[in-house]
Design goal:
By secondary structure, the protein is α+β, with helices and mostly antiparallel strands. The protein has two domains: 150 residues, Four Helix Bundle (Hemerythrin (Met), subunit A) (Up-down Bundle), CATH 1.20.120; 274 residues, Alpha-Beta Complex (paralog of FGE (formylglycine-generating enzyme)), CATH 3.90.1580. The protein contains nine helices and 14 strands. The strands form five sheets. A four-stranded mixed sheet has the order 12-11-10-13.
Length: 455
């Protein structure tokens, strides 16, 4: 779920132990870089269209872009200016307007929202004050929970990047002229020789984290999981493979569908992923305002959990569990450690993962050999969010921090877990432990999947 959540501010000490060993000045610079990177992206997404496009609602599933812009500023004001800095509220009268729980997305255009110029000024004013607070905030281990290891600053950078992803989804849904462009991602060099699947040996591994300083509450705490041996697709399922499912009658055969998914197919007359259509015998798709042939070797995108599950059943396979996905992505059998990322503990580079809106599309299956996990699976970080079979549930020992509305209120069978991040995710909001979740009907998100089978 790209973040749309507004807190009831609390600074109760739910920050787990284990975040020591982080140099406060290194974290201060990291927080500054993350905040500046997020804001540069926000500016790109909002300055690329005119005021009419900013205030329009391009889909009832999404907010007007101008709502996201002011919401970003309001969250930063609540957490960094008020909660961390102890500053007097700048615009307390707008808190309710930008409370996502109070106003569903479809209703937000009718609210007395800040106009584009006012929203930009507000967000900029908040940012300037937040950077002043960051400069003097004590980030040492013994500090207040929100300041410890720079957590609040990392949380806000992640929040902004999550809304940047939300705004990019809105750009994909809008039907106006092309507003965003980007180069194509790198082509794979050894895709033809890659095995179709990898074997992940059975045994225990450490899932989640207690040490990542900016990990969010649902990623915590680290705990041991036992996972039986299984096979996993080396790369995400491609458009070409998914097209074969369509052509074999996948959308007309109820055998492959969960009952609720079959109801969705019939109610909405679904026949392909969102944004696909058939013309003159060829499958085409709309991507950020451009209509183009569907590329067979690119991971399929904009499919719901029900579609992913149906494809897996049709293929004689299944979706991996969340624990299986994380073991394939993080477990290093040579050392027994769980890595921060599939390739190791270092932050992502452009050679390892497709992140940060750098390319505006997934890379072809088999790309980024430098980013492959010890299991041999690739593209586990970036490219497409990957549906798992798991419900979104708390880990053993979960503690809500710093507010219940981030994770706790979403736990249960109504939401399915996605892992790995997409090309629309920034590295600050994407790691081997990061958990995303959404309703199984969602298709507008940048979601794909890979399949598994028992060993």
């Amino acid at each position: 779920m790209t973040d749309d959540r507004t807190p009831s501010v609390s600074t109760a000490d739910g920050f787990p132990t284990g975040s020591g060993g982080h140099d406060p000045e290194v974290l201060r610079q990291r927080a500054l870089d993350a905040l500046l990177t997020a804001r540069a992206r926000t500016v790109t997404l909002t300055d690329s269209v005119d005021d009419g496009e900013l205030t329009a609602q391009h889909s009832p599933l999404m907010s007007p872009l101008v709502w996201d812009l002011a919401h970003i500023g309001n969250q930063e004001e609540q957490w960094l200016l008020r909660a961390v800095g102890g500053r007097e509220a700048l615009r307390p009268e707008i808190d309710g307007l930008y409370d996502a729980f109070e106003h569903p997305r479809a209703a937000r255009p009718s609210l007395p929202l800040l106009a584009p110029a006012e929203a930009r000024t507000y967000a900029s004013d908040v940012r300037g004050r937040a950077l002043d607070i960051l400069e003097g905030a004590p980030l040492h281990e013994g500090g207040r929970p929100l300041e410890r290891a720079g957590f609040a600053f990392g949380m806000i950078a992640q929040h902004e990047q999550q809304h940047d992803e939300t705004m990019l989804i809105t750009h994909q849904l809008r039907t106006g002229p092309v507003a965003l462009t980007a180069p194509a991602p790198p082509a794979p060099t050894d895709a033809a020789t890659l095995p179709a699947e990898v074997l992940v040996p059975g045994g225990p591994f450490t899932m989640g984290t207690s040490a990542e300083p900016w990990a969010l509450d649902n990623e915590r705490p680290a705990h041991r999981r036992e996972v039986a041996a299984f096979h996993l697709d080396t790369a995400p399922v491609t458009c070409g493979a998914y097209r074969r499912f369509i052509e074999d009658g996948g959308y007309t055969d109820p055998r492959w569908w969960a009952p609720e998914g079959w109801d969705m197919v019939r109610e909405h007359d679904l026949a392909a992923p969102l944004f696909w259509h058939r013309d003159a015998g060829q499958w085409l798709r709309r991507r950020f305002g451009v209509t183009e042939p569907v590329p067979d070797d690119e991971p399929v995108l904009h499919v719901s959990w029900y579609e992913a599950d149906a494809y897996a059943r049709w293929a004689g396979r299944r979706l991996p569990t969340e624990a299986e996905w994380e073991k394939a992505a993080r477990h290093d059998p040579a050392t027994g450690r769980s890595l921060r990322y599939p390739w190791g503990d270092t932050d992502p580079t452009p050679e390892q993962a497709n992140l940060g809106q750098r390319h505006l599309r997934p890379a072809r299956a088999g790309a980024y050999p430098a980013g492959r996990a010890p299991s041999g699976a690739g593209q586990l970080i970036g490219d497409v969010w990957e549906w798992t079979s798991s419900d979104f549930l708390p880990y053993p020992g979960f503690v809500a921090f710093p507010y219940r509305e981030y994770s706790d209120v979403f736990f249960g069978p109504g939401h399915k877990v996605l892992r790995g991040g997409s090309f629309a995710v920034d590295q600050v909001a994407c790691r081997g432990t990061f958990r995303n979740w959404d309703l199984p009907v969602r298709r507008q998100i940048f979601s794909g999947f890979r399949t598994a089978r028992d060993a």
